[in-house]
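MODEL INPUT / OUTPUT PAIR
PAIR INDEX: 1
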Amino acid sequence: MHRRPLLAAALAATAAPLAARAQEGFPNRAVTLVVSFPPGGQGDVVARPVAAGLERLWKQPVPVVNRPGASGEIGNASVARAAPDGYTLLMALSSLAVIPEAARLLGRPPAYEIDQLAPIALFTADPTYLAVPAEAPWRSLEEFIADAKRRPGAIPYSSSGNYGALHLPMAMLTTAAGLDLLHVPFQGGGPALTALLSGQVQALASGPGPITPHLKSGAVRVLASWGARRAPGFEQVPTLIERGFPEAEYYIWAGVFAPAGTPAPLREALRQAMAGVAADPELRRALEAGGNALDHRDGAAFERFFRDDTARLVKAVRRIGRIE
């Protein structure tokens, strides 16, 4: 009866130095960074400069692998099930916690649960913006809402898929404002943006990175943001909160996760590597060139951010309800 605890303690004492030694040569081969969406979206825009920074630091390849499908569920689940050895990581978006809750709303088992993934480091956390084509008739949020109410179901908008990082903010707005818009889902933010630029749709909720080049070229304009306050560089853009929609707050963040079974020493090695990349001026320049601001958090700070954001978004999903 007393031998089992003693045996467990002995095994733990043996495993700790083994795990520590396993990290000494890490990485000694390529580390895959999975993005659960096609190229061109927010996750991809952040993942590529982060991967480049890790390659400079580790002197090993860090390929970005796009695994789109099911609003990000396929790619997220692939990393949740991956070997916890540090060689498969996920650049996740804010939809990470939404997707399992949405699966339950739809009456099916989730492909993964968030406790199967361990937060390592946050890199960006930007408000989402309501973008429309430059030739669209709306010059303000109020004009957009008024037209949508006059023509229920007539204004199409694109997204990265049901309950995805670009769909949930629009669902928050339509629920709060009582609007009926035509939802046109795609497999990711890149195709959703292409649909806006090509005239297939007339609105898109997007992080600042993908739309910034098109704002500069004059191809799109933004009518409002889902932030708590106006952001630098977007001072002229009102927030939905200040326009009377206090529950329409949403941030499209991007952060690195590892499989939850990754040993603590290896997670710490990953955290330190991400901190090194965050301190690299090249990363800041690359993010800013793409319209994103570096917002590096790790350890307890990222865990607290993720926990709080998860609680807020799960509440929003339940309020919106089932969407087929």
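PAIR INDEX: 2
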Amino acid sequence: MRIWRRPARTVRLRFTVLYGAMFLLSAVGLLVITNLVGLGGTRVSRSAPPGTPPVEPTTLAAATERIAWLQTQLSDTHAAQSRQFLIGSALALAVMAVVSLVLGRLIAGRVLRPLRMITAATRRISADNLHERLAAQGPADEVKDLADTIDDLLERLENSFAAQRRFVANASHELRTPLATMRASLDVALAKPEPVPAQTAALADRLRTELDQVDRLLEGFLMLARAQHGALTDRTTLSLHQLATAALHARTADIATNNLTVRSPAAADTPGTVHDSAWTQGNRTLITRMIDNVIDNAITHNHEGGSILLATTTDGATARLVVETGGRVLDQRQVDRLAQPFQRLGADRTHSGDGSGLGLSIVAAVAAAHGGTLDLRARPEGGLRVVISLPAAAVPAEVAA
């Protein structure tokens, strides 16, 4: 014995019922209007036509003439009634077409409202809040299945991001242990009382330099992974001007070694309020590293006797850090790739080989994690213009006081 099961309430079934009922109502309304028009035409046709002779026919010829006249009047009446019926039907069809479109739009909007809600909720979810779910409510139909499928996809993405973050962090930390051991072994070997051959000492210095480079590369991996996939905790209000000034002061020796000049633009050169504090909110460690990378890039990738332009501005709801450097004329197509990991413009642009190719990619990742952007432009006169835009924050109360 087969058990009867109630059909599932699918979106297709609901569309069928709703639109079927809509067109049925439209057809009923059209028939009612056309019948009313037809009844009006029938009543007109039953009335005596104007100009009817009042006298009765008395002869056969007069009767024949009377019949022919009546037939002509009847044909004219039928033609007028047909035209009236056709015009009424056309008007009724036009009215019902408009009504059907309006009703169809309203009903379709109501039916598709859950899909719009799912689309809006999906757009709000990004890499920073993959833990959120749609959690759609309603009958078990296609819309509910779609929302559940998206939730499953978000869960898999969250697990994948978490696994990637754990892998990068664990691999970097695990690799630091043998690096420290290797560096300590070199120091112990060089510290022995026996004379160390010059070739061995040179090789040890070369190995120590390479180990330092690998250590910086691992630190860059950790910072990049944290900026791209880590949760931004410990948000505080920061001044881009203060952090950039501190970064410049910490690198005074490098600036003097390369004979660089640090300057600030005039108010006409940079939109906004030049030299303001440019307050923003974010993680102090990440934003400090972001600014340090920009300043290091400006010092390292510059020509001898060049200049560094530094400005912080606030324009509406955006706080900006602008850093311009001198140098040769660059290709904008190559500059656009600098925000990607391990992208360089060539060894001739660097004074040393200690660049890991992660500096500007970390800057882009930190800016994106804070809801900002990184804009890199090749200057027509040579060099690079770096603009970091972050959401502006209100001046802290203690600073304003």
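PAIR 2 NOTE: The first strand starts at residue 235 and ends at 239.
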